[in-house]
Write a structure and sequence with these properties.
Layout: E1 8-11, E2 13-16, E3 19-27, H1 44-71, H2 78-87, H3 91-104, H4 108-124, H5 129-132, H6 134-150, E4 164-168, H7 173-177, E5 184-189, H8 197-205, E6 209-211, H9 216-219, E7 225-229, E8 234-237, H10 241-261, E9 278-283, H11 289-294, E10 300-304, H12 317-331, E11 336-339, H13 366-372, H14 374-387, E12 393-397, H15 403-423, E13 433-437, H16 440-444, H17 446-449, E14 455-458, H18 460-468, H19 486-501, E15 505-508, H20 519-524, E16 529-532, H21 537-546, H22 549-559, H23 565-579
Parallel strand pairs: 3-4, 4-5, 5-6, 9-10, 9-16, 10-11, 11-12, 12-13, 13-14, 14-15, 15-16
Antiparallel strand pairs: 1-8, 2-6, 3-7, 7-8
Helix pairs in contact: 1-2, 1-3, 1-6, 3-4, 4-6, 12-14, 14-15
Length: about 575
């Protein structure tokens, strides 16, 4: 009998905070391995029928999950099941697989696998983390169809009766949505990313999770004791007693910390000397609004509209209107800022013919794409304007690089307004119009742009990438992605100062806004609003309420004298360790 391995430490991506300690329960659901099987012409229609039946079977399985969630009052996660059902209706998925069967004379399994491989390569070229994460949705649907084709059972999690940590190659959002917190302590997977739907559901259910561990299913045996740290992404297999006890204590402290944070969710984000900052949420679907409310968000600082374009067809005006109306009504009495389509170049959907580009990250994308595809842009603007009659909405144009683009976008918006006026259609005539500040050229002329808009929203993800000339998804240079780089702090300060000089407000909606350690610097920079993922909001509120604006400004003055991001990071974390010794280590 082989000796039991102990204290194996693995590092993945922590996607849902918390510490879980328990026995491993392996889900045997790796990829379905198939080979291309040649067929004769007379077998083509039989294979096409097999494929169509497998698709229909997949739909029925997801419909049953949806009905179960609705019965269990878990309707807040039904939208993700609907998203997978939409993928199963996708014309490209169906037609291209059937085309492979007919033209290549191969069986349904191989035809689907070939099509999924082509889609995978397309998604791998996408730079945007959120859209790249949609690859997992496509892969999960493909695997479900393959399982039905070869007759493999799709094991659910409902049969689990004891408290365990799930170990799997991957989990679908439908798996995660059905998890019971009293039975599933946490989960770890071979693949996945922070913005996959599975991770989003895990965060909303507050189930600790670590993904992207590569081959964790091959390293963990059923019954192994696992320690899972959803904050750091560390997973420990069969820890020694000393490590076990240390993490048990950390787990208890974290539970206490979480309970304590809930005290802050309904309190205002006001510093000790009376300076207030609005804390809002970043979301992609109206169904995420309850989570914002539960964590004390004051509205939506960034609503990403790209998901509307990922279905079986391009969205029509009514699709936009209904989605944004739900948003306006759901977030009341607060406001929601809607970012117009941020797609193009490296962010592709199947309904639009995309040009090949050498450097898509700096190509025809975001507002540039909208200004080229005016009809598509107008359709979205009409939907936003009409929905503004039902609540407080703001509109925001992404990737503005200069005044010409801004004036063109505003000109098209004005045309749509006049069109609605001529038809007597109601909309909010006072709706605020703003822009994303994420390109260095826009930051350089922030004082000029501020005269033309109602607000700025700083998108730090792209601003940092473009300013420091690094690809944040390239593992060779990812270490250079430094939010506290002296240049970044100076650029943000320039944007804020220009906005305030013009009498407009400025928010931050990039990942930097949701990093608790950076809150003192952001307070010192005098940002009016921070927008982040919902679970972080109570923590940020606690930090804001523990500080004074004057000490934040002093800290900012101190760090602006430093030359490197490392020095600044060290000083900031030292300051946070003094304020919160239990949460931050020097």
């Amino acid at each position: 009998m082989p000796k039991k391995r102990e204290n194996i430490i693995l590092k993945g991506i922590g996607v849902s905070s918390g510490i879980a300690i328990g026995r491993a329960h392996l889900i045997e659901r790796g990829r379905v391995e198939v080979e291309e099987r040649p067929i004769k012409k007379g077998q083509v229609e039989k294979e096409v029928t097999r494929f169509r039946r497998a698709v229909e079977q997949s739909k029925l399985q997801l419909q049953r999950v949806k009905e179960k969630l609705l019965k269990e009052s878990a309707k807040e996660h039904v939208y993700i099941i609907d998203a997978h059902l939409l993928i199963l209706e996708d014309k490209m998925l169906i037609d291209d697989t059937i085309k492979n069967i007919r033209e290549r004379l191969i069986g349904a399994e191989g035809a689907l696998k070939r099509h999924m491989h082509n889609l995978s390569m397309i998604f791998d070229r996408i730079e945007d983390e959120y859209l790249r994460a949609r690859k997992s949705d496509i892969e999960q649907i493909g695997e479900r169809i393959l399982r039905n084709l070869v007759g493999k059972k799709h094991d659910g999690l409902s049969h689990i009766k004891e408290k365990v940590i799930i170990v799997a190659h991957d989990l679908t959002p439908s798996d995660t949505a059905q998890m019971k917190k009293d039975k599933i302590l946490g989960f770890v997977t071979d693949i996945g990313g922070r913005t996959s739907h599975t991770s989003i559901v895990a965060r909303s259910l507050e189930i600790p999770a670590v993904v992207g561990l590569d081959n964790v299913t091959q390293q963990i045996m059923p019954g192994d004791i696992i320690v899972l740290d959803g904050m750091t992404g560390v997973v420990i297999i069969n820890p020694p007693k000393s490590v076990f006890k240390a993490y048990l204590e950390r787990s208890q402290n974290y539970q206490y910390f979480e309970e304590e944070l809930l005290r802050f969710k309904k309190l205002p984000a006001v510093t000790k000397d009376g300076h207030s900052v609005r804390l809002a949420g970043n979301i992609e679907l109206p169904e995420e609004i309850p989570s914002l409310s539960e964590h004390g968000a004051e509205g939506i600082g960034l609503y990403r509209t790209e998901f509307l374009y990922m279905g079986k067809r391009l969205p029509v005006e009514e699709d936009h209107f209904e989605t944004y109306r739900k948003l306006a009504e759901g977030v009341a009495p607060y406001s929601a800022t809607i970012r117009t389509l941020d797609m193009g170049g490296d962010k592709m959907v199947s309904h639009i013919e995309w040009a090949e580009e050498i450097n898509p990250a700096m190509g025809l994308r975001a507002i540039r794409f909208s200004l080229k595809e005016v009809e598509l842009f107008q359709t979205q603007l009409r939907g936003i304007l009409r929905a503004s009659a039902y609540g407080k909405l703001k509109i925001m144009f992404p990737m503005i690089s200069g005044m010409q683009e801004l004036r063109q976008a505003k000109g098209i918006l004005e045309e749509v307004r006049k069109e609605l006026d001529s038809k007597g259609i109601a909309y909010d005539r006072e709706m605020e119009v703003g822009i994303m500040m994420e390109i260095p050229s826009a930051a350089a002329i922030a004082d000029i742009l501020a005269r033309e808009v109602d607000f700025f929203s700083i998108g730090t993800n792209d601003l940092i990438q473009y300013s420091l000339a690094i690809d944040r998804v390239n593992e060779h240079v990812a270490y250079l992605y430094e939010p506290l780089h002296p240049a970044i702090i100076r650029i943000i300060k320039g944007i804020v100062d220009s906005a305030h000089a013009a009498g407009i407000k400025v928010s931050m909606c990039g990942e930097m806004a949701g990093e608790p350690a950076y809150v003192p610097i952001l307070l010192g920079l005098e940002l009016d609003e921070l927008s982040m993922n919902a679970p972080v909001i109570p923590w940020v509120k606690k930090i804001v309420r523990a500080m004074s604006a004057s000490e934040a400004k002093k800290l900012l003055r101190d760090v602006m004298a430093f030359s490197t991001a490392t020095e600044i990071e060290g000083r900031v974390r030292e300051h946070m360790a003094e304020l919160f010794p239990d949460e931050f280590v020097r």
